Amino acid sequence: MAEDNWGRWGDDDERGTLNLLTDDVVLEAARSCRSGKVYRLSLPLARTGVPLAAYRGGPQRLSLLTERDNLLGVAGVPDEDGACEDVLILPSHSVTHIDALCHAYHEGTFYNGFPASGFEPYGGATRLGVEKLSGFAGRGVLLDLAGFLGVSWLESDHVIAPGELADCARAQGVEIRAGDIVLLRTGWQDRFLAEVSRGDTPGHTQPGIGLEAARYLAERDIAALGADNSGIEPIPFPAGRPLAVHIEMLIRRGTPLIENMMLRELAADGCHEFLFVLGALPVPGATGSPVNPIAIA
């Protein structure tokens, strides 16, 4: 396989490895459903108690209309009837979210050679915006690294290696195929939420997939990669490798990343293969979007 996917689906391609999710691939994934159980894989869009980056701020839900406003009275609606509405203010990379292919750049360049200078302060990305990802579905594969290694969560300095991915998949009886959406459970999110419930202030240091392991998955032509930590890769970054996994997956391979996923219930049920469905908010030019991914077993 080529070391990157630039030009693989044409010089104007803006979907990257989501091109692998053909109609036949999606139909085959749908046939994997056995029980019909639906799993929500997102955290709540809450102001507190969830992983947030301080510089982004937390999601805010403000009330626009309540039963005390009776704004609809001008339309003849009686006082005892009406509607309530909200205003949502939130960063695009808030809580459970997907990174669009215009999120990260390397040496001034996005995926497929599009220049990072094409990102405008007002208009956003002229190419590779999150709206280009659209909605997608395919075969989801959970690699429960924490469960496989017999721990509640990986240690904060754990860098996931290729052999661990291969051994975990083998132990779980799953094979990673072209077009799969691979989800990694490190247990970090469980640790974060446990610390919050005790009233502690969780640290941001976390385990994640190493560059070699990311390449291992990329060589198997996965369509997307998700994890239960907030950066996919380890934080802080390994020495000399800042943003290495983002550069490898988003920029070189054109593989979207899904961060801060809730994977505990899937792992508890031993559900390692399922139909995966995700829809991003189609905000033109945005670098990412909050998402509520769904797994159907």
UniProtKB/TrEMBL annotation:
Superkingdom of the source species: Bacteria
Gene3D superfamilies: Putative cyclase
InterPro entries: KFase/CYL, KFase_sf
Record lineage: Bacteria, Bacillati, Actinomycetota, Actinomycetes, Pseudonocardiales
Protein name: Kynurenine formamidase
One GO term of the biological process aspect: L-tryptophan catabolic process to kynurenine
GO molecular function, one term: arylformamidase activity
